[in-house]
Amino acid sequence: MKKNILVAPLNWGIGHATRCVPIINWLLDCDFTPIIASDGEALQILQKEFPELKSITLPALNIQYQKKGNHLKLKLLRQLPHILKTIKAERKITNSIINDYKIDGIISDNRFGVYSKKVPSVIITHQLNVLSGNTSFLSSKINKIQLKNFNEIWVPDFKNEPNLSGKLGHISEKTKLNIKYLGPLSRLNKTEVESKYDLMVLLSGPEPQRSLLEYKLIKELHYFKGSVLFVKGIIEAKETKNITGNFTVCNFMTSQGLEKALNSSKLIVCRSGYTTVMDLAKLGKKAIFIPTPGQFEQEYLANRFNNLKLVSSCNQKAFNINELKKTDTYNGLDLEYSIPNLEKLFSLF
After folding, report:
1. Contact 41/232 with Cβ under 8 angstroms?
2. Which of 58, 78, 164, 167 has the fewest Cβ atoms within 10 angstroms?
3. Is residue 70 very low, low, confident or very high in pLDDT (cuts 50, 70, 90)?
């Protein structure tokens, strides 16, 4: 009998879902039966990638964002009771799913309520340390308490330098956490293709910041002379494409289309979410990062790669078309990826 493995990514943008794509493919290659569980856009994107797999809807966090990023931490603190209530609901429904679907193991991507003492449980996270400004020590401590509920912690990064996550995914002190470094995860592959677009915009993340950046970029790129592919990052029933002059606008792209588009684009404008960082590093692309206002993790990653002279960055409010010229002096991201030993990786199950 094939073993059933529950794969449950957090719905916070689509990055947690898309980095589970290689994990699901590896499970299939190793003769497991993955069962997908999430909510919102994360669930939709995996349903489109794996229409043949069983999928389950989990309770939604529905985190509300501020228009002003400097108020984000306060907004999240106010929503803490709702977050804890949702995690408790996840725990309850996870136990039901284990019984109903005869689950043999769990792979959660940052869903802290999706674990069980009945079956081996793994969490995927690049955040061993959670940055929150002057409360980073407290948020990191709370995070480590949550991580202790899992048998193993899979960090999608290299253990040693050079690595992508920096202090987010690496802790110097001794820890009882059972940490495994997988190497970076990406659903995309690098291919040698002819350049089609001078610039590709790849939007993602929660509202209202996604829409605010969309409006800002469309306004600024009106003066751009080259060819532009603009991917809004809005998951809908069907992919749409509208072409006006040198401007091509898509609502979203699944893996195959996105891989081709990124490989054929000279420069990428995007958020500095960790999954996007992993994708660009695998494809060896030049980019400019515009971190989501108030998201300390994205701001840290953008500053990290800017200081390393790998990727230029700019805050959302200050962006203008002249920022694109600065990328000429940056080297871009480019790392060698390799598949981990799958027999050893899945030995827990």
Report:
1. no
2. 78
3. low
- Within its chain, how far is the Cα of 171 from the centroid? 21
The structural architecture, per CATH, of the domain 4-185+338-345 is 3-Layer(aba) Sandwich (3.40)
Dmax (CA) of the chain: 60
199-329 has which fold? Rossmann fold (3.40.50)
CB 178 within 8 A of CB 246: no
Task: Please say if the pLDDT value at position 66 is more than 70.
Answer: no
Query: Which residues make up the CATH 3.40.50.2000 domain(s) of the chain?
Result: 4-185+338-345, 199-329
Grade residue 309 by pLDDT with cuts at 50, 70 and 90.
very high
Q: Where on the phi/psi map is residue 163: left (φ > 0), alpha (ψ -120 to 50), or beta?
A: beta
Is 164 buried (19+), middle (13-18) or exposed (0-12) by CB count in 10 A? buried
